[in-house]
Design a protein that fits this description.
The complex is a heterodimer of chains A (248) and B (288). Chain A is an alpha/beta fold and 248 residues long. Chain A has helices at residues 49-57, 79-85, 102-113, 118-131, 147-160, 177-192, 204-208, 228-233, 235-247; strands at residues 9-20, 23-34, 38-42, 64-69, 72-73, 87-90, 165-169, 196-200, 213-218, 221-226. The longest helix of chain A is centred in the C-terminal third of the chain and has 16 residues, at 177-192. Chain A starts with 8 loop residues before the first strand and ends with a helix. The relative contact order of chain A is 0.17. With 288 residues, chain B is mostly helical. Chain B has one domain (2-115, 139-278): ABC transporter involved in vitamin B12 uptake, BtuC, CATH 1.10.3470. Chain B is 73% helix and 3% strand. Chain B has a two-stranded antiparallel ribbon. In chain B, strand 1 (130-134) and strand 2 form a beta hairpin. The chains are: A alpha/beta (248), B mainly alpha (288). The interface between A and B is medium-sized, with 31 and 19 residues.
Chain lengths: 248, 288
């Protein structure tokens, strides 16, 4: 607990702006995440959710505003450095290193992201494979995995870098209901180890089962942020999601 | 028996070609860079060996490897970080053009410094030492060493690629450079290490080349072609395949020369074209 009754912030975005030509993908976004907190982000397709992750992970740089991590200004830090100080992400579309085994995929994250030797990482890699239910696939080539397994590998690899903040981008999309439940369970367990999480997801009930807070993004702007139930039931959010349903 | 002899000599020669080729194949595999200056870098390594010998006095040329290998590796690292890294991107043309320019610069610099005279690293008795395998087929000690060294180099690279942290970094970066960065890898450093490794192999190849035959500043492009042919015949991305490719080119050349001394190089190129026409992905393409 920090002064002023607020939890110590692990991540802070202030007035973050990003535009691609005339298209504003992040419009003066303020966002704070407390240490150990789990935040869900929802919003229509193209609202700027993945861009927000790119800005946090450092693959894309902000046009204006600031990003700070654990009290340190990281606005100008490169992606590889952000990974080493503890920000890790999984991709919406899984990008495994297809020519390497599952074990090796996770090992690369553990060796370079967490900065440990290979042998020193073996135990940790096995723990992560256990946590993400991939132990049986350790020696399979990552290119030969099913969708669920690939999504798990994304998570496993992100975890291997020993993150303090984990960014999960639509990991539940395309999964069956039981698979989705398994995934929720895995995310819960990761959370219980003290990792802070931001999770972008369309499958709202999966999100609500895990997160403490829910933020809504539309047209690059944050339009709601607060208790998940209240946010879901607020008129603005209902309107956006009703709109989507009418289109679909 | 002459024919068997030609084939045996060709196989051994293939070891040298495989060494020309592995460095080429390695950097193409890791960063999709086609290094046109590869042959000239081999010749540069040969001249470095020559300089070392002139300073130290008569030594076995193989002893110069102790110095030439690390110096070439360092040159490779600096070359990659100082020049090639800036040319890599979606377009494969810039690295091709830059390495072509480097090739011209190297050839002319060597010409300026060492003149156009052809040189050789003399290895004394080792050059002519041989033992009979069967009647009419003698195995030269130097060619045999060349072949065994090539096998050793490939086995070592294979080990580095599949069993070490550095190798996993190479494979991860080659697979997806963007994701590799997210895993905390510094791609520029990884690429530079790959080039350093490639140049270390080039150093070994250069010294063996210089012991086996005369070289001059214009010898590079032909070595590049032999290397390319070995890589393509063997199948891209397969190191043992590259050794097989080197052997195919070597045997084609010695058998060609047996038919008619003027056909040595022609025969190698013709076999290459045939393989390209029949199996465009090489004899042993990587399964993935």
């Amino acid at each position: 607990m920090a002064a002023g009754g607020r939890l110590m912030a692990i991540l802070e975005l202030s007035q973050v702006m990003k535009r691609y030509g005339a298209l504003i993908v992040a419009d003066q976004i303020d966002l704070e995440l407390a240490q150990g907190e789990a935040l869900g982000i929802i919003g229509p397709n193209g609202a700027g959710k993945t861009t927000l992750f790119n800005l946090i992970a450092g693959t894309v740089r902000v046009d204006a505003g600031a990003v700070s991590f654990a009290g340190r200004d990281i606005t100008y830090l490169r992606a590889a450095e952000r990974c080493r100080i503890g920000i890790s992400r999984s991709f919406q579309i899984p990008h495994p290193f297809g020519g390497m085994t599952v074990f090796e995929n996770v090992l690369v994250g553990a060796t370079y992201g967490a900065g440990k030797g290979e042998r020193a990482s073996y135990g940790r890699v096995m723990e992560i494979l256990e946590l993400t239910a991939l132990t049986g696939k350790a020696n399979a080539l990552a290119g030969a995995l099913t969708l669920l397994e690939r999504k798990r590998l994304e998570m496993a690899r992100a975890l291997a870098t020993s993150p303090r903040l984990l960014l999960l981008d639509e990991i539940a999309g395309g999964l069956t209901e039981p698979e989705c439940r398994e995934l929720v369970e895995a995310v819960r367990q990761i959370r219980s180890t003290g990792v802070s999480i931001i999770w972008i997801e369309h499958i709202v009930h999966a999100l609500i089962a895990v997160v403490d807070r829910l933020a809504v993004i539309d047209f690059g702007r944050k339009i709601a942020d607060g208790d998940p139930r209240q946010v879901i039931e607020s008129p603005e959010v209902r309107e956006i999601y009703m709109g989507i349903e009418a289109d679909a | 028996m002459e024919w068997i002899n030609a084939i045996v000599q060709g196989v051994l020669l293939g070891g040298l070609y495989a060494m020309f080729a592995t460095g080429l194949s390695l950097i193409f595999g890791v960063m999709r860079l086609v290094n046109i200056a590869h042959g000239d870098l081999i010749v540069l390594a040969a001249y470095l060996g020559l300089v070392v010998l002139e300073v130290t006095g008569p030594l076995n040329p193989l002893a110069t490897l102790a110095l030439v290998v690390p110096v070439m590796a360092l040159i490779g690292y600096v070359l990659q970080r100082g020049i090639f890294n800036f040319t890599l991107g979606k377009d494969i043309l810039p690295p091709l053009l830059v390495s072509f320019g480097l090739s011209i610069i190297l050839q002319n610099s060597l010409l300026e410094i060492f003149t156009a005279d052809s040189r050789r690293l003399t290895a004394g008795a080792l050059e002519v030492a041989s033992f009979p395998m069967v009647e009419g087929v003698d195995i030269g000690v130097l060619p045999l060493m060349m072949f065994l060294t090539a096998m050793g180099v490939i086995a070592l690279l294979q080990f580095v690629f599949y069993r070490t942290a550095m190798g996993r970094a190479f494979r991860a970066t080659s697979d997806d450079p963007e994701v590799a960065r997210m895993m905390g890898l510094n791609n520029r450093h990884v690429f530079a290490l790959a080039m350093a490794l490639s140049m270390a192999v080039v150093a070994v190849a250069g010294i063996f080349l210089a012991m086996r035959t005369n070289f001059d500043p214009a010898s590079g492009p032909a070595r590049l072609i032999f290397g390319f042919e070995a890589v393509i015949i063997g199948g891209l991305g397969n190191l043992w395949g590259t050794l097989a490719g080197g052997v195919v080119v070597g045997v084609a050349q010695t058998v060609g020369a047996q038919i008619n001394p003027g056909w040595q190089q022609l025969a190698g190129h013709v076999v290459f074209l045939i393989v390209l026409a029949v199996r465009p992905r090489g004899l042993f393409p990587r399964i993935l």
